[in-house]
Amino acid sequence: MNKVYHLSNCGTCAKIIKSLNMPGGFVYQNIKEEKITTQQIEAMHKLAGNYEALFSRRAMKYRQLGLNEMQLTEADYKKYILEEYTFLKRPVFMVNNQIFIGNAKKTVEALAILLSS
Is the pTM of this model over 0.85? Predict the structure, then answer.
């Protein structure tokens, strides 16, 4: 299944999705409205290789909770992503058993190439 984890009110997510001219068959999950499950985060982890790659240090709560001053483990990254949707680096695209995490230009370009082939 091809899936997009995003925030519906995130301008960056919307811009990326629009720019990709997404083909049909994608399932869209607004992570604010529909929380990420343990099974979903574990599927992302399997493709990403670690939870840290999925974790956003840009989230406002990252500093508010003092996480920037802590040594976080893989278990910590998983826990925080499951507890607070803003800790997931967005958007996350799962396409043909590949994962594309975040909004970096290189990531979006690689996804665009895959979707156009």
Answer: yes
